[in-house]
Amino acid sequence: RARHGSGHRRRVALGFGALLIRREAGHPAPMLPVDLLRRPVFALSSVTAVCSFAAQGLAFVSLPFYFETVLMRSQVETGFLMTPWPVVVAAAAPIAGRLSDRYPPGLLGAIGLAILSAGMASLALLSAHPSLPDIVVRMAICGAGFGFFQSPNLRAIMASAPPERSGGASGTIAVSRLLGQTTGAALVALCFGVAGRHGPTLALGLGCAFAGAAAIASGLRLFAPSHRAVRRR
Question: DSSP letters along the chain, please?
Fold first, then answer.
């Protein structure tokens, strides 16, 4: 009975969701900017954002457990080891923003997310007793990759929407970020439930896969019809 009730609620939710999307698609001022998702660059940039923030969510939730329970680091060391990622993101983002004036966001995003994927894979494959510099370098690589992608992707989302729809585009950025981070955090819980003490390592591997998927979505923007127009803007 519980399963039947759960399935019924799921079908009802999907039905109402479909009705909402159908209504918003034809609305002149939609609450959900469904019409913008018909633009290839906008849609691919949004998918890139969701997948990349899911990778970030997987990493940020699982890494403290990974450092403490797998690599046997103290709480103080774990706090310091989490620092290189956001610091390098802050340093890399302005550089990527300047480069986006010269190169397509799809290319910069694909490169950055490939670096992020490689960095997360290198973290998951660390030996049982790595040195602190080994961990710091890998965290810095992840931060560089994420920072390299973020500014060009935000620019691509805003530039691919009409000026009068800038509010809807900004809302899509926020929804993509929260959806990705929430998905990543939920998947960490699933990894712990499936793999137990190996959950943090599994979560990092899954984050690597999400970053790789985001890199592919970003690269596909190079073949979208309007990517040159976005670059000119």
Answer: -HHHHHHHHHHHHHHHHHHHHHHHHT-SS-SS-GGGGGSHHHHHHHHHHHHHHHHHHHHHHHHHHIIIIIS---HHHHHHHTSHHHHHHHHHHHHHHHHTTTS-HHHHHHHHHHHHHHHHHHHHT--SS--HHHHHHHHHHHHHHHHHHHHHHHHHHHHTS-GGGHHHHHHHHHHHHHHHHHHHHHHHHHHHHHHGGGHHHHHHHHHHHHHHHHHHHHHHGGGSTTHHHHHH-
CATH H-level, domain 33-232: superfamily: MFS general substrate transporter like domains (1.20.1250.20)
The answer to whether 206 touches 137, Cβ cutoff 8 Å, is: no
């923007």: which residue's tokens? 221
Say how many Å lie between the first and final Cα of the chain, rounded: 56
| pLDDT, mean over the chain | 88
At 26, the pLDDT band (50, 70, 90 cuts) reads low
